[in-house]
Amino acid sequence: MAHYPVLPELIQSSLPDDLQVDTFESRAWFSVVAFRLTDLRIRPLRFVKWQDFWEINLRTYVRDGKGNRGVWFYSLDSSDLFGVLGARLLYGLRCNFARINRDGSAEERLLIYRGNRGKIASSRIEADWDKAEKVKNEPGTLDHFLLERYRFWSRRSLASRSSTAFVSHVPYEAVRLQNVDYNGGLFASQGFAEPSKGPEFGHYCPGFIVEATAPEWAFSISGQANQR
């Protein structure tokens, strides 16, 4: 994850009318997040094995009118075409097919993700955590604000309001990264200026199991996967 502080009004002007920008000490945040998804299972068809795939997304942090906190995704680039179609149809997420590859490994303490959406957007996020420090991730800290989000919203093209879904997983066992960098066109593809300088800091976290609910109109279905 690579995190960028930004003026709250910039975020607010880009959100649906039923969501508000969430801030920490008066600052809003963009985050570029890259990970591998493995062993995806969709209920009730858990016997269907899904191939592993990569994802790079651009997100921000929001609240609804009741004060519930979560995430708003501006874009989600995925190397799995069927996953892209499912996310668009089920959730209305701004999911895009992209060619994504990863170099490095957790053992090397170095990861480099590269994404390519053709002429629309490319992205590269690189991080090493040789000297990273483990965070306490306690409520009231910036780390907790950025990491512990268990809800996301989306707005389907013809819908009059945003819909929500939930995720559940163990708390992040994260380390803070100073050696992290992003460049590409994810911000520009959503109408924002690309960052003029590097992220303020980043996070790395080893893999864990995630369970996600179906969208509001299909709560009888849920999925499970490992995010790494």
Explain how this protein is built.
The chain is mainly β and 228 residues long. The protein is 11% helix and 46% strand. The longest helix has 11 residues, at 81-91. The radius of gyration is 17 Å and the shape is globular.
CATH H-level superfamily: Acetoacetate decarboxylase-like
Q: Kindly report the average pLDDT value.
A: 90
Chain oligomer state: single chain
Would you state the CATH class? Mainly Beta
> Terminal Cα separation, in Å?
12 Å
- Contiguous low-pLDDT stretches (5 residues minimum) are 220-224
Helix content: 10-25%
Tally of strands: 17
Percent of residues in β-strands: over 45%
Largest beta-sheet characterization: 7 strands, mixed, barrel
- Total domain modules: 1
> What's the CATH topology label?
Acetoacetate decarboxylase-like
User: How are the strands of the largest sheet arranged?
Assistant: 3-4-5-11-12-16-17
| Order of H and E elements | EHEEEEHEEEEEHEEEEHEEE
Shape, please? globular
Give me the secondary-structure category: mainly beta
Rg, nearest Å: 17 Å
What is the overall number of helices? 4
CATH architecture annotation: Beta Barrel
